[in-house]
Design a protein that fits this description.
The protein is of the alpha/beta class. The chain has a single domain, classed as 3-Layer(aba) Sandwich (Rossmann fold). It has helices at residues 25-33, 53-60, 81-92, 107-117, 206-216, and strands spanning 12-16, 37-38, 41-42, 45-48, 65-70, 100-104, 123-125, 130-132, 149-150, 157-160, 168-174, 177-185, 188-193. Strands 1, 4, 5, 6, 7, 8, 9, 10, 11, 12 and 13 form an eleven-stranded mixed beta sheet that branches. Strands 2-3 form a two-stranded antiparallel ribbon. Strand 12 (177-185) and strand 13 (188-193) form a beta hairpin. The longest helix is centred in the middle third of the chain and has 12 residues, at 81-92. The chain is globular and about 40 Å long. The two termini are 14 Å apart.
Length: 219
Amino acid sequence: GDGNPNDEGDKRIYLYVGRDARPGFQYKMEDILSRQELHGAPAEVATFEGLGGEAVRAVVWAKDAGVVMFPPFYSYPDIGPGAARDIRNFARHGFERSGTVVFVGGGLEIKVMNDVFGWEVHPTYVKGPYYKDARYAREDSTFGALPDMIPEVGNVFGAKMSTLPPNSRSFYDSFGVSVACCARVGLGRACFLAQDFMDVVRDEIGPWATLLEALINYE
């Protein structure tokens, strides 16, 4: 890329695996991502365990940080104001292949996203199936090849679309509730996927895994 030193080289997904992350998620997510690509290269995962200022800063300033992913939380994580600011700046200064912050899960994860980004997104249960939103999940986007509909797996708490921040895009939704969306943050983006992958059996995981891959590659 031109002008942004952070856009050079392959990017990795930095996955939070600290004590307030749901046990077992790390291995499930590493297994899913091991079959996926990030911007044309095999997805590589790095993990981090701390949410203190220095730990978060080391992640968001890493040259190979393309995506920062927060898992379903076991309890409310202690993200201080300094760490939250660094996460916002990571998104804000994002470039073509970095600056994506992804939250996967449900109501608790939406609350964490709200607290980090200063939003007021309302989590809402929504029954499946969920339909591809043609306005944004266009043929030329990373969602182009995905199915028109994905099934409900587990209890799905999505984001009420009328409460999403400006410059948001919903890719799959039903009855005014998005289960896969991104909001522009400066040059980057914060994305939410309404699936914690915890109670999903292997043969049900496919559509949601491809949805995650489309989200982390979305520009």
